[in-house]
Amino acid sequence: MDNFWLFSLIAPICLAASNLIDNHVLHARLSDPVAYDIVTTWASIPIAAGIFLGWRVSFAFDAWFVGSAVGFAFAFLFILYNMAMMREQGTNVVSVMYTSPLFIAILAAVFLGENLTVANYAGILLLVSSALLVLYRRIDTRNTALVIILVYAFASAVSRVVTKSALEEVDVWSYYFWFLVGGVVGTTILAAIRPKSVSGAVKRMDVGLFMLVVGTTVISTVGLLFLYSAFSLGPVALASGLSAIQPTVLFAYSFALLRLRPGAIPPERITGRWANARKIGAVLLIVVGALALTGT
User: Fold this and answer.
1) 151-169 pLDDT, tens digit each
2) DSSP secondary structure string for all residues of 177-234
3) Claim: this prediction has a pTM higher than 0.85
């Protein structure tokens, strides 16, 4: 289980860096959620080609059908994520997004038969609570960005349970290849429906934006491969529970970026009388939650 916990820890550290880039681009460089979805997915085509050429890709049903179906669905679901990132501070978006481990724990118990200990479930709850501690806005129907990402969180939870089921039968590289194929097919359909989004992105595509698109694509690929590897080694509920540290990691990244480049992303705001207590509390909940989750 050592690799399981290591992979589960590395994944959110990588994905938080990708979230930071996404928040910056959608806030300051390319304020079109559909265009950004298309260009970041198409940037993964060389990665898919590399996997196909360097790996014996499986054509099993759980690989090509399930992987492609999940990738195709995310070609459209990522628009919700991008819309939220464009309208709201990244830490808030990811905080709500990482309520998903609660959905995953329930779905995994019902559909995969994952039986965790009371301590494991307590650890998941504590880690999700740590994510919500860095959220400075309430979730209500007037805040459309956070409502949008809550829908995304549930859909993401379903996809992770489906992915875990598929990875019981196929290898991670094959599954991820077909996931990318499904995403490319989906975004190509989007490009045909929204050609102005593509042309607008091309007009804005300078060297800096290109590097950011490639950067977030590569970093998210590394993060997802570690996450899927963790899914293949152990319970999806535990791996997803530990990934709830991602909002706190993103908060640290965002704080550092805003000190270096003010205005690069929407400002971080954990304010009020209990601001410092909430920050410290988030860290403590991560420590206690991780100990409970790992059973140490």
Assistant:
1) 999 999 999 999 999 999 9
2) HHHHHHHHHHHHHHHHH-HHHHHHHHHH--HHHHHHHHHHHHHHHHHHHHHHHHHHHS
3) yes
